[in-house]
Amino acid sequence: MTFGTLFVLSLIKAFAVVVGLSLNIAGVLTWVDRRQGAILQDRVGPERAVVWIPRRIAQGAVLGPAVLAAVGALALFFFKDAEGAARTTRAVGFSHLAIFVTWFTALLIAGRVRVRGVKSSFDAFIASVGDPRHIFYFGLGAHLLVLGLLAALAGTPAGETARDFLYGAGPFVFAFSALFGAAYAAQRFQHERAGFRLIGMLHPAADGLKTIFKEDFIPPGGDRFLHKIAPFISFFPVLVLLGVVPIGDTLCFGSDEQGRIAFTKLLETVPRDGICPTSVLGTGAPVHAVRLQVLDLNVGILFFFAMAGTGVVGAALAGWASNNKYSLLGGLRAAGQMVSYEVTLGLTLIGALMIYGTVRIDEMVRWQAENAWGIFVQPVAFVLFFAAAIAETKRIPFDLPEGESELVAGYFTEYSGMKFAMFFFSEYVAIVTLAGLTTAVFLGGWHLPFLHRDGIHMAIGDTVIFSQPLTHLTVVLLGVLGFVGKTVALCVLQLFIRWTLPRFRYDQLMKLGWRKLLPAALVNVLVTGLVVLAIQSASVEVQRFMGVLGQLTHLVVAVAGLVGLVLFVRFLLSRAEHQRVLASTSAQFAAAAGGTQTSRMGA
Fold it and tell me: Which of 260, 268, 55, 85 is nearest to 160 (CA)?
């Protein structure tokens, strides 16, 4: 590829990862954090920001995308036929997409009817269904029926007939459901006012916009240059760190007549082994690989820690330049805390590096795809790394550098406007970045159980349980969705920890890092070295048994994922039960909960 093509690709990938993934998830985390805090404190949630849209614009906003989606689906059916694995993939994808759009549209209409009452004969029909949860159960049953039917009839003439039927019916059902839902919404806008709330996320967006116009205050006795540059030193590293973490597998493109990359010629299928074939089968044209990674560095994990360490400088400079004792104490706390837990972060990864045999993050993911996820081969390291990562982001229960009950706001006490927002938002971006690295190193990255580069192959040892070829694009998209899902799950887990645990004392924080986590990391390195030596010197039968164990871990992950999904859906569908707890003071609340335990101060 030419330099210009590489430059444009890098810009696109940087925008997708930094803006599309990191900043968007950080913004959602801000909303979730505020919303959950509002619920816990029994006050009005952040849903007051709304943009009222004129009737015609609102109707066009719902009809336009629906028409484009319907036309695109029908055009794909009429003008671009598919055979083999591509036909099967499109049949499965469009059938499930049609089912989803159908029941989700009906669910939204049913929920709206319950709120405003019956206004038409169709509303009366929807209301006759009863609880809107029944619609969801019906949709879920339809998804499972299609999956079971295709799995049971795979490789038979009846299976090919079912596939062809879904291939043709899916786009039409999808187009009808999308157009009907959009037409229903547009008709309701004829009588109702259209408000754009985006489920309350406009409120944090409005807060961010508001900070632009706030006064930029600099303390009279502070260092003006360092005070201005400190927020940038804190914000820039966390913004670029995710660039070395791959969010998906490599895309393989064909070439044009001059041998240059042709982005319209994405390979239909790729071999299971390797990354991309050297040439297109049958034509001999070269194949170009595009990694879903902004920075493809040979020292990826080392670059991550090198850049992450510069965040300490920003916090320390902010505390020093503010000419404020509270800020200075917060800066010192931040420097001590981040340096201490960076040591643990690095040591916990030593065991993983010994097993993976590389510092390239993409190769770590491929090792986990071929063997077992890092959480199974390094369970202690995962727990230690995750605990140290939370401390590194300086969030509750490790928010000692901020400590509003002790230091007002810590090292950014004297900051306002966008500079304060940069400090505040950098912590949420750091949550996303460390969650992404944890996903890549310990949770398989973009890999999903039994999903290989050529499709789904479920096998234990020599026994093949299920096999389904998929197109190259489908496999890569599923991998990207898997990576994003794991990252979001780790971010939400960190928020749950924030809402659950109280703040440590500073001596407890340092004792945890130096006396507990650091020795445990050293012991984990020692044990890992012994286990690796034992396995390498073992017989062929033992190594083959370890391979079967790795496949069993994938089965465990798949079953656990399905059970977790069912439990999560059940939780979402359960009726909310509000319980008010009255306590005049926090001491009385703690006593009612069983009391608190404290330890003596220690260095």
Answer: 85
Instruction: Give the global pTM.
Output: 0.80
What residue spans define the domains of the chain? Answer: 51-195, 206-247+296-537, 251-290
In degrees and rounded to multiples of 5, residue 599 shows phi and psi of -120, 165
The token pair that represents 37 in the structure block: 């805090």
Alpha-helix residue ranges (DSSP H) falling in 80-156: 85-116, 121-128, 133-152
Q: pLDDT tens for residues 386-414?
A: 988 888 888 778 888 777 667 777 777 88
Provide the b/e sequence for 288-313 (b: ≥16 CB within 10 Å). Answer: bebbbbbbbbeebbebbeebbeebbb
pLDDT in tens, 541-584: 887 888 888 888 888 888 888 888 878 777 766 766 655 555 55
Cβ distance 385 to 525 under 8 Å?
no
Residue whose token pair is 């205050």: 217
**Rounded distance between C-alpha atoms, residue 488 and residue 439, angstroms:** 10
Beta bridge partners of 468: 456
Q: Are strands 194-196 and 261-266 parallel, antiparallel or unpaired?
A: unpaired
Q: What are φ and ψ of residue 557, in 5° steps? A: -65, -45
